[in-house]
Automatic annotation (TrEMBL):
Metabolic or biological pathway, per its Swiss-Prot or TrEMBL entry: Amino-acid degradation; L-phenylalanine degradation; acetoacetate and fumarate from L-phenylalanine: step 6/6
Residues the record marks as active site: H112
Binding site for Mg(2+): D212, K232, T236
Record-listed Ca(2+) binding positions: D105, E178, E180, D212
Binding site for substrate: Y107, R121, Q219, Y223, T323
GO biological process, one term: L-tyrosine catabolic process
Name of the protein in question: fumarylacetoacetase
UniProt keyword Metal-binding present: yes
Domain Fumarylacetoacetase-like C-terminal, first and last residues per copy: 104-386
Keywords: Calcium, Hydrolase, Magnesium, Metal-binding, Phenylalanine catabolism, Tyrosine catabolism
């Protein structure tokens, strides 16, 4: 039922869906269908319009439900029980899969950090002196995390043009994307508690594709010394399907060497990463293939750092890896890198060229990873169309 799909039986990603005239509920994707968990399982956690109830239950329950779903979907004798609750994917509307509590964005790719350093801080070391000692990050805006398909309105704000006497206000002229992986936290922590790297699996339920839309002109003018603010807070898009960590066992690979050895709470044995390859598409054309495996800081190190000061985790917390950029040409996860600050525009097949995004542009991110049975699983699609700026009323 699931050949040639992003969603074979090894995947079983969770989402929230509705059909015309029915309320939102939780489902899992299998092949070209969504299994309506609210109907097929006798469990109120799935008759809710978000995944949060299930997220909060923890790894034993997550594993039980997954095992039950595999049984329901593979045992021929269960067919009559399951078939009435398989809804064709092309007939459902997919919604934001969980209520986003807090949203944090890291900066874990050495190649991305060094590229941005070279462009934004010429004459200095590409990496700041703290970069190899702790995973840098910033708190983003949870309330503007939107699901795939939601259009993104070009942001307005201040920019400072080179040599100009002062800043101007208006629509961003350097609207960009950032290809990232987002981690979805299930189990909360108590005040003062921190999560050691080895306890990552007790807290993180799964992953989503994430696009951290970024207005580079607003960002360049506002970000010193407090970091990203309005240049990124207008929208962050995530995919509708949360791929469970349980589906990514075969994707675990050794992480890249780290030097110097990280400080105590950031050590992990083994240092691991995920063999996920992304595709960034602009108006239907693949312009980059960023590889996740070489991210310097691992998913578990990011979580250990996020909680190292004793700040609590909440169910629905979302933390992102930071832009995924590999070392080779064609592996960068942002246009600012792919076009080197807009100086080398991309030539598209339709004859047009792009330094940054234009109104009407459609950005799509996909990804795949090895699966338990030797095939591949996908993450579905994360897409968004750029709409023109909304003009600001005069004061
Ligand atoms: O190098 C900088 O000043 C800023 C880089 C970013 O755009 C920050 C960010 O969102 C982190 C990331 O995605 O890796
Ligand atoms: Ca980012
Ligand atoms: Mg953003």
């Amino acid at each position: 039922m699931s050949e040639d799909s992003d969603f074979p039986i090894d995947n079983l990603p969770y989402g929230v869906f509705s059909t015309p005239g029915t309320g939102r509920r939780v489902g899992v994707a299998i092949g070209r269908w969504v299994l309506d968990l609210g109907a097929v399982l006798d469990d109120p956690d799935f008759r809710t319009p978000s995944l949060n109830a299930h997220l909060s239950r923890g790894p034993e329950r997550w594993a039980q439900v997954r095992a039950r779903l595999v049984e329901l979907l593979t045992d021929e004798r269960r067919r009559p029980l399951v078939e009435p609750y398989l809804v064709p994917l092309d007939r459902v509307t997919l919604h934001l899969p969980f209520e986003v509590a807090d949203y944090v964005d890291f900066y874990a790719s050495e190649h991305h950090a060094a590229n941005l350093g070279r462009m934004l801080r010429p004459g200095q070391d590409p990496l700041p002196p703290n970069w190899r000692h702790l995973p840098l990050g910033y708190h983003g805006r949870a309330g503007t995390v939107v699901v795939s398909g939601t259009p993104v309105i070009r942001p307005c704000g201040q920019r400072m043009e080179h040599g100009a006497p002062g800043p101007v206000d208006g629509p961003s002229r350097r609207l960009d994307v950032e290809v990232e992986l987002g981690f979805v936290v299930g189990v909360p922590t108590a005040p003062g508690e921190s999560v050691p790297t080895r306890r990552f699996d007790r807290h993180v339920f799964g992953v989503v594709l994430l696009n951290d839309w970024s207005a580079r002109d607003l960002q360049a003018w506002e970000y010193v010394p407090l970091g990203p603010f309005l240049g990124k807070s207008f929208a962050t898009s995530i995919s509708p399907w949360v791929v469970p960590m349980a589906a990514l066992g075969a994707a675990r690979v050794p992480g890249p060497p780290q030097s110097p050895e990280p400080i105590g709470y950031l050590r992990e044995e083994p240092h691991w990463s995920l063999d996920i390859t992304f595709e960034l598409e602009l108006n239907g054309e693949v312009v980059s293939r960023p590889p996740f495996a070489q991210m310097y800081w691992s998913p578990a190190q990011l979580l250990a750092h996020l909680t190292a000061n004793g700040a609590t985790l909440r169910t629905g917390d979302l933390y992102a890896s930071g832009t995924v950029s590999g070392p080779n040409p064609g592996e960068a996860g942002s246009l600012i890198e792919l076009t080197w600050g807009g100086t080398r525009p991309l030539r598209l097949r339709d004859g047009s060229s792009r330094a940054f995004l234009e109104d009407g542009d459609v950005v799509t991110i996909r990804a795949s990873a090895p699966s338990a049975s030797g095939g591949r699983i996908g993450f579905g699609e994360l897409t968004g169309t750029v709409l023109p700026a909304v003009s600001r009323p005069e004061r």
